[in-house]
Backbone:
């Protein structure tokens, strides 16, 4: 019966809480949060608060014998406890390291409430009335006030004499959640990084309008803003690729299945990810249930939807190469590829993505390997110089090599949560594909030789790296070098015709100056939005610099400048000669600041450990980052570490694997003589 079930649950909870009370500190934030959640769950299940929970401090706490119940709080049903010793100070710690006094908690929470309240007041003072802009902060304020009531048992805003009591903040928060409607965009709030990093990432790219969900599972729709960022990156990289003597080309999306099977390691590496085309047309289903593959249109040979293009390109190289005079041959294509991923995440891992893939053929091993390393340097330069992402260059372990490669070189970046992200690879393919496709050249001595090969590529995964390296809880943050709009100009104080005309004339001078220096700008003159919502929108989209211009600014011959990366607004005098240079300096400072912050994070989170047990303990305790260790190359041990810790060898860093780097060092796992210095990390 329900009465019996309630009784059993109450008894179970009572004994569970009696045990947990041995280490219970009522002023520990983590314990308070757990108690609050447990209370609400039990009230929902049983219809009342279990006696065990209500009597926890009085009957169960050995650490705090002087704790006594003060009152049950109206609305939250959570029992508040206060110490009768030392004026409310906590005398013992539960061990979590978060113990604090009630007064300290109240002080911190009050400051947080006042900060959010001031932000709402400022938005309203700026003329913001739109619900989509104000509501996230209002919801946050209500949530904070609800926490105040949970902590103190009293409303943050007590009613004045004769005034009708306000509805409890807890009730308002609950009603907000219950009345959430389909207008999701209007009430969209970005999840804080500290709360849920994965959800924060999804929220940021959604709020910035970079991607949208696709009706095709595992695929993404890249929206115009996301595509514009990719185009900026693509243009920079394309220029640098051409500077190496590489030419762009394009090869078919479909690859005969027999091509893929010619290189054994290659087919093994990609077989499980391939999408296969078996028919060339559809027909009506005889059952009347839509369409079906026409049985009479079955292909003689199935076609693979391109997962990468080595096989079809090397079939063409066989036709194009006959003499040493044809070498080196360097081609690149910008294309989409399909790798059937089961677990996807926009930009980081999807069934279809955009990339560039370069393929080269050479007369010697040294020249080919040099080309592969050269392209890795190009990728590192773009990552750091354009995206402001510092990277570690190195060699992949044999277990992590590209299928069919002799060596794989990589750039590895470290995200804000301490996880690694492989951000670009370059492969020295040896003569494996030349053998598979019989690609030979006649050398100067008239002898036939197999050519040497490379392939290299980066993808839209770099956009995921960009988001996770720089963005914050307010939304996307874009380095100026890759931002489609570097400066957004927002007219303020509009409404009077003479003032509007004056501002517009001034803006023509401002934009002409920016244009003369090649600065990418946009004037947001939408008349259906107040300035406040515009500020909010462009902040979420990551534009590096905001310029505000109003009638008073025109009179003072200046503009007001605000950086996306924070800091106070600045007045910037308008001078036809120097203004654009001043803006350029602001943009360069932002670019440099982002790179410096990311470099500092990389340095601070690159660590060493003395043993595998130390690494394992650190990872189990939630510590992240790069772990640099001496390593004896062993695929079995590598797989064991991956299984036990979910950490993998990201690379053997070039900077730590020079001559004599491992002399006298023992592997941190096996104790045998080390062969490399290896960088371990958990990774996306």
Residues:
């Amino acid at each position: 019966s329900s009465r019996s079930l309630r009784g059993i649950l109450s008894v179970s909870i009572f004994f569970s809480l009696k045990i947990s009370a041995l280490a219970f500190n009522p002023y520990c934030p983590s314990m308070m949060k757990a108690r609050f959640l447990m209370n609400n769950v039990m009230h929902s299940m049983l219809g009342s608060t279990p006696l065990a929970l209500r009597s926890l401090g009085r009957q169960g706490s050995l650490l705090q014998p002087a704790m006594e119940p003060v009152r049950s709080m109206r609305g939250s049903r959570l029992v508040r406890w206060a110490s009768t010793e030392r004026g409310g100070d906590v005398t013992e710690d539960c061990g979590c390291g978060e113990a604090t006094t009630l007064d300290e908690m109240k002080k911190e929470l009050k400051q947080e409430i006042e900060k959010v309240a001031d932000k709402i007041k400022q938005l309203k003072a700026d003329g913001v009335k739109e619900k989509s802009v104000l509501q996230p902060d209002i919801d946050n304020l209500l949530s904070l006030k609800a926490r105040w009531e949970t902590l103190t048992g009293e409303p943050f805003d007590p009613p004045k004499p004769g005034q009708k009591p306000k509805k409890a903040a807890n009730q308002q928060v609950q009603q907000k959640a219950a009345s959430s409607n389909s207008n999701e965009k209007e009430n969209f709030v970005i999840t804080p990084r500290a709360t849920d990093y994965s959800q924060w990432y999804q929220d940021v790219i959604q709020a910035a309008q970079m991607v949208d969900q696709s009706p095709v599972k595992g695929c993404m729709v890249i929206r115009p803003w996301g595509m514009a960022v990719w185009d900026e990156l693509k243009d920079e990289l394309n220029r640098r690729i051409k500077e190496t003597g590489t030419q762009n080309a394009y090869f078919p999306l479909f690859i005969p299945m027999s091509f893929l099977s010619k290189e054994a390691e290659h087919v093994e590496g990609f077989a499980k990810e391939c999408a296969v085309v078996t028919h060339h047309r559809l027909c009506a289903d005889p059952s009347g249930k839509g369409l079906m593959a026409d049985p009479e249109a079955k292909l003689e040979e199935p076609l693979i939807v391109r997962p990468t293009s080595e096989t079809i390109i090397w079939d063409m190289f066989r036709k194009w190469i006959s003499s040493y005079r044809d070498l080196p041959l360097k081609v690149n294509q910008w294309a989409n590829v399909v790798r059937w991923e089961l677990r996807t995440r926009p930009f980081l891992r999807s069934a279809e993505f955009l990339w560039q893939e370069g393929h080269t053929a050479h007369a010697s091993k040294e020249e080919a390997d040099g080309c592969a390393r050269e392209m890795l340097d190009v990728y590192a330069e773009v990552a750091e110089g354009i995206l402001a992402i510092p990277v570690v260059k190195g060699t992949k372990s044999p277990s992590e090599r590209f299928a069919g490669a002799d060596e794989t070189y990589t750039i590895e970046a470290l995200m804000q949560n301490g996880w690694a992200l492989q951000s670009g690879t370059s492969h020295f393919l040896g003569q494996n594909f030349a053998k598979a496709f019989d690609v030979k050249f006649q050398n100067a001595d008239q002898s036939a030789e197999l050519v040497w090969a490379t392939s290299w590529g980066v993808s839209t995964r770099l956009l995921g790296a960009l988001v996770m390296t720089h963005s914050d809880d307010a939304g996307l943050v874009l380095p100026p070098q890759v931002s489609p709009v570097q400066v957004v100009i927002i007219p303020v104080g509009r409404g009077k015709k003479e003032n509007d005309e004056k501002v517009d004339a001034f803006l023509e001078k401002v934009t002409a100056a920016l244009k003369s220096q090649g600065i990418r700008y946009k004037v947001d003159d939408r008349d259906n939005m107040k300035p406040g919502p515009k500020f909010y929108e462009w902040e979420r989209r990551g534009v590096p610099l905001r310029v505000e211009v109003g009638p008073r600014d025109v009179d003072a011959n200046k503009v007001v400048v605000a950086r996306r990366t924070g800091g106070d607004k600045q007045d910037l005098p308008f001078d036809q000669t120097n203004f654009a240079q001043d803006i350029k300096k602001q943009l360069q400072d932002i670019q440099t600041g982002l790179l410096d912050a990311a470099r500092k994070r990389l340095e601070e989170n690159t660590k060493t450990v003395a043993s595998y047990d130390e690494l394992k303990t650190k990872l189990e305790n939630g510590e992240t980052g790069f772990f640099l260790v001496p390593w004896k190359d062993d695929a079995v041990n590598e797989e064991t570490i991956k299984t036990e810790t979910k950490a993998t060898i990201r690379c053997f860093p070039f900077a730590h694997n020079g001559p004599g780097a491992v002399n006298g060092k023992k592997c941190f796992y096996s104790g045998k003589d080390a062969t490399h210095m290896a960088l371990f990390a958990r990774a996306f």
Remarks:
- The first helix runs from residue 2 to 20.
- The chain has 21 helices and 27 strands.
- The first strand starts at residue 67 and ends at 72.
